[in-house]
Amino acid sequence: MQVRPDQLEQHLARGLKPLYTVWGDEPLLAQEACDTIRAAARASGCSERQVHTVSGAHFDWSSLLGASQAMSLFAQRQLIEIRIPGGKPGKDGSEALQRYCEQLSDDVVTLVQLPRLDRQQQGSAWFAALDGAGVTLRVDPIERKALPQWIAQRLARQQQRVEAGEAGQRTLAFFADRVEGNLLAAHQEISKLALLYPPGELGFEQVESAVLNVARYDVFKLGEAVLAGQVARALRMLEGLEAEGEAAVLVHWSLAEDIRALKRVKDAVAAGKPLPMALREQRVWGVKERLFERAVPVLTENTLAALLEAAQVCDGLVKGLKHPDWPLDPWAGLRRLVLMLVEPLAAAPGTGRTRSAPPRLALQAQ
Questions:
Q1: All domains of the chain, ordered by start, with CATH?
Q2: Which H helix or E strand runs over 52?
Q3: Burial (0-12, 13-18, 19+ Cβ within 10 Å), 87
Q4: 24 neighbors 36 (Cβ within 8 angstroms)
Q5: Exposed (0-12), middle (13-18) or buried (19+): which is 51, by Cβ within 10 Å?
């Protein structure tokens, strides 16, 4: 049984299940979900708690199975937590977890904590047993477009709000830019506002003076921002990656992979293949699939050829080679490459964006 994190409290109000599995790669939301389950377990009489952390291949699964069947001497019920940081219990662990799910007791509440799982792990017998025997919560990162609303909801919990209308949206967008990719720090910055200001409305100046720039950027999210035509965000992310000490080689590889994939998809469509089929053949899934569907018709053959040539030049720059027509600094070269790709996408009809820079902006990047 699957439950969304925002449905958890309502679910627990109807009664506590014997098994909960929390998995995903967003530490704050996972921690909050686990804390909520622990509080419900304590309220139901689970005053004794055991924690079993699976680290390495020599974990004693028999002790876990025995603990689930042993009656507590000091409490009516007990909470058993099983933490698998690597997300792979192994063959013995897989069999043990399946047996564990078959012998669940009403006197024990079990909380299993897992990281993000790939498709193979989600399709495994042990995960299917956990999902079938109890409640599964998947905690995903908050995407940038949903972050302002998430911030507004968190402010409302502490009886604070931003101004109504466009001014408030501007404040939330500024806040989101400062904390993107770092939800735990975002939570701390929101809590800080409760300490600094009383309940009520927050102005832009108050948020601007209080909220630190704690954003953390992901190389692969940079590619999504570029393909979405988000010029300002893409450049901000590129600057952030440089400031964080990310390897220029990795940033270039990510951008070059997207450019090569766009060229292959464009060639396949030109040869008569339907766009969805071409995307599947190039293994373009999820968010990237929607972005490619918009980008492929916009980018011409000449544009893609120029992008491929530029990516080749940047490959040399990040490896220490010089080019007479390009900046010496590899990050300046990456900035030009980003602008060459994002500019036609930002100016595409139907995006709701206007061209905020003169044509051939990429050629002016230094």
A1: 5-139 (3.40.50.300), 144-210 (1.10.8.60), 219-364 (1.20.272.10)
A2: strand 46-53
A3: middle
A4: no
A5: exposed
Residue 71 has phi, psi (to 5 degrees) of -80, 140
Entry pTM:
0.69
CA 334 – CA 273 distance, rounded (Å): 32
- What is the structure's pLDDT at 116? 92
Number of H helices and E strands in the chain, helices first, is 17, 7
Closest C-alpha among 230, 288, 231 to residue 262: 288
- Report the pLDDT value the prediction gives residue 241, as an integer from 0 to 100: 92
Residue 135's DSSP bridge partners are: 20
Q: Which of 258, 358, 264 is nearest to 310 (CA)?
A: 258
Residue 25 CA to its chain's centroid (Å) = 7
Kindly state the helix (H) or strand (E) to which residue 221 belongs, with its residue range: helix 219-227
The two tokens of residue 315 are: 């490959």
Q: In whole angstroms, give the CA distance from residue 316 to residue 198.
A: 55
Give me the residues of the chain with pLDDT under 50, please: 351-366
Structure tokens at 124: 């495994």
Q: Extract the tokens encoding 20.
A: 């909960």
Structure tokens at 51: 């924690």
